[in-house]
Description:
The protein is mainly α. Among the domains are: 31-108, Arc Repressor Mutant, subunit A (Orthogonal Bundle); 128-160. It is 71% helix and 0% strand. The longest helix has 46 residues, at 63-108. The radius of gyration is 31 Å and the shape is rod-shaped. The two termini are 46 Å apart. GO terms for molecular function: DNA binding.
Amino acid sequence: MDPVNGGIGSDDEVSSNNSPKHKNQYHRNSPDLVAQLEEYFKDNPHPNENERKELGRELRVDPKRIKFWFQNKRNQVKAQIARAENHLLREENQKIYLENMMMRERMRCTVCSTCAGLATATKQDDDRKLILRQLLVENAQLKEEVYFMHSSFLRIYILSI
């Protein structure tokens, strides 16, 4: 900072910060390099600093680029797992929703077995309502169990990475 110019740096300082030397450049990795990194990732998704340096020497790449590639790859895998889990949960949710709707429809349109007409409010109707409540409770328990299983699987997988 330059006290003469009111705390603003001189023109030389400003222009030197904008020079191409100081800008981060985007590096696209070659397909061959990516294939080698992918192969290494399968065996060890968390290489330590020494492993990254050794890998950098072998592949002739800066260890920082390798570090960031592995970070990005781990995040990519985590996001893929989350999307897959989300898809499975949506399918399971849809299946349970359809089962629930079918049960409600069956309970609404009960038929008397003796006369083949619509049933009136009887003990049989009360029994069906009780069964429906039990099924709804069981449905809620199953939903909770499925959610718990999927979240446990995700936690275990993420911890293993």
